[in-house]
């Protein structure tokens, strides 16, 4: 048997059993970022955003949100036009920046760093309001065929480097962090963004 197949067996053995994907259900959340991963698979190039749910509140009239303590992810496949803008909105929100504050070249370099093996966003917190939207062209279809889009609206959570480092250490050790709002950051997000 090939080494590649053995690696797949090990990967499956080490994974958590799931019932389908760990998609983000509609709700208002506080997340700790677990990872930002660039993938180049059979469905194309994508960036996966992986989160630990720290706080979750249901939206009126929607099903229950992902539970506190669970993990969830948003995968942005670049075969879809919206993927690039969605990833950019997430990165800017984590950093607390506006699009006008960063050049395309600066952003490209930062995104490469964010997706690297160092995973600088691991341990950072971000808020997200997730909701479902049915495009106008699908609204006349039966509900089972409407296939609503899940939209994410990420917002910045101020936090210090020490707080991020502490959460990262907790994640790396396997212990769970406790949800709490972080105080304002001590240095400018733009300065950190421009650092290499």
Q: How does the helix and strand content classify structurally?
A: alpha+beta
Number of strands: 5
Percent of residues in beta strands? 25-35%
Output the helix-strand order. Answer: HEEEHHEEHH
Radius of gyration: 18 Å
C-alpha termini separation: 43 Å
Low-pLDDT runs: 177-196
Averaged pLDDT: 82
Sheet with the most strands, sense and barrel status? 5 strands, antiparallel
Give the key terms.
5 helices; 5-stranded antiparallel sheet; alpha+beta; 196 residues; 27% strand
Explain the overall architecture.
The model is unreliable at 177-196 (pLDDT under 50). Strands 3-2-1-4-5 form a five-stranded antiparallel β-sheet. The longest helix has 13 residues, at 83-95. It is built from five helices and five strands. The N and C termini lie far apart (43 Å). The relative contact order is 0.16. It has helices spanning 3-14, 83-95, 104-114, 161-173, 189-194; strands spanning 27-41, 44-57, 71-77, 125-133, 149-156. With 196 residues, it is α+β, with helices and mostly antiparallel strands. It is 28% helix and 27% strand. A hairpin with a 2-residue loop joins strand 1 and strand 2 (44-57). It has one domain.
Quick rundown:
The chain is of the alpha+beta class. It has helices at residues 3-14, 83-95, 104-114, 161-173, 189-194, and strands at residues 27-41, 44-57, 71-77, 125-133, 149-156.
